[in-house]
Design goal:
This protein is mainly beta. The chain has two domains: 25-136, Beta Complex (Metal Binding Protein, Guanine Nucleotide Exchange Factor, Chain A); 147-262, Domain of unknown function (DUF427) (Metal Binding Protein, Guanine Nucleotide Exchange Factor, Chain A). It contains no helices and 24 strands. It has strands at 25-28, 33-37, 40-45, 49-52, 60-64, 73-75, 90-95, 98-106, 115-118, 128-131, 134-136, 147-151, 156-160, 163-168, 172-176, 182-184, 195-198, 202-204, 208-210, 212-216, 225-231, 246-248, 254-257, 260-261. A seven-stranded antiparallel sheet has the order 1-4-5-9-8-7-6, with no helix packed on it. Strands 3-2-10-11 form a four-stranded antiparallel sheet, with no helix packed on it. Strand 18 and strand 19 (208-210) form a beta hairpin. The radius of gyration is 23 Å and the shape is globular.
């Protein structure tokens, strides 16, 4: 606190920046983490480490080798072409008559010596992962990321190729760090008769399992858009407000909020 007559120094003011793209970042975790395959517990750790590989937007877990069934791992004879952040030792997971190639690897660097990472998103290595007693999907939750679902009175309209497909004054706005706001709309305010249901299902570590998707076939010369809208019939409790509501990829539709047309965001979903 400044004393009377003194002039407080102004601290430097900087915008928060992401971690350097060429750096592997880690921090200790406090959650009890288990991973299973075919009913067998392969990982059981109360000392997990969260690891962000260079350029990766989401973390993975590393575990002390003592917390891993190393007897189920054998040195890979053919490591993957895409190496993980300086890793040179890879392991195949051998369980009964099943072998998962390059399922795990030793972490590089002195600070993470003796730790083992497992492949997550994009590969079916372990069947189930749990933090405490809750199953998690796709990747570990980032402790520096928030996901908030807030009821709102904003007027939200959705158009596709000039056709009005949704209009509501009671949306739930989902704010997720690093992604654009998603507007979850009551079903009765969405013209679902204009869409075609699909059998797509996706999982999210923050929201749960989306088991309902809809595609837009296009009208006239309009472009078809597959899986442009989705819903979570049974979301995780933290975002229960989005239950059974419908959201759209803002990257592929026009969103109008309180009369102002929003700019289409550019995200990892833009090129799907």
């Amino acid at each position: 606190m400044a004393t009377p007559g003194s002039t407080p120094e102004t601290p430097p003011v900087v915008r928060r920046r992401p971690d350097p793209a060429d750096t592997l970042v880690w921090e200790p975790g406090e959650r009890w983490v288990r991973g299973t395959k075919g009913g067998v517990t392969v990982v059981d750790s109360r000392r997990p480490v969260l690891v962000w590989e260079p350029g990766a937007p989401v973390p993975i877990y590393a575990f002390p080798a003592d917390d891993v069934r190393m007897d189920l791992l054998r040195r890979s004879e053919r490591p993957p072409r895409r190496y993980h952040a300086g890793a040179t030792v890879f392991y195949d997971l051998a369980l009964d008559d099943r072998v998962v190639r390059s399922a795990a690897w030793e972490c590089p660097g002195e600070e993470l010596a003796g730790h083992v990472c497992f492949a997550w998103f994009g590969r079916e290595v372990l069947d189930h992962w749990y933090e405490e007693e809750e199953e998690i999907f796709v990747h570990p939750r980032d402790p520096h990321k928030r996901v908030d679902a807030l009821p709102s009175a904003r007027h939200v309209q959705i158009e596709i190729d000039g056709t009005a497909v949704a209009d509501t004054r009671s949306p739930v706005l989902l704010f997720e760090t690093g992604l654009p706001v998603r507007y979850y709309l009551p079903r009765e305010d969405v013209r679902l008769e204009l869409f075609t249901p699909t059998d797509t299902s996706t999982r999210c570590p923050y929201k749960g399992v989306a088991t309902e998707y809809w595609s837009w076939a296009g009208e006239g010369e309009g472009e078809a858009r597959r899986d442009v809208a989705w819903s979570y019939p049974d979301p995780l409790p933290a975002v229960g407000a989005i239950k059974n509501r419908i959201a759209f990829y803002d990257e592929y539709v026009d969103v109008i909020v309180d009369g102002e047309r929003q700019q289409r965001p550019g995200t990892a979903f833009s090129g799907r």
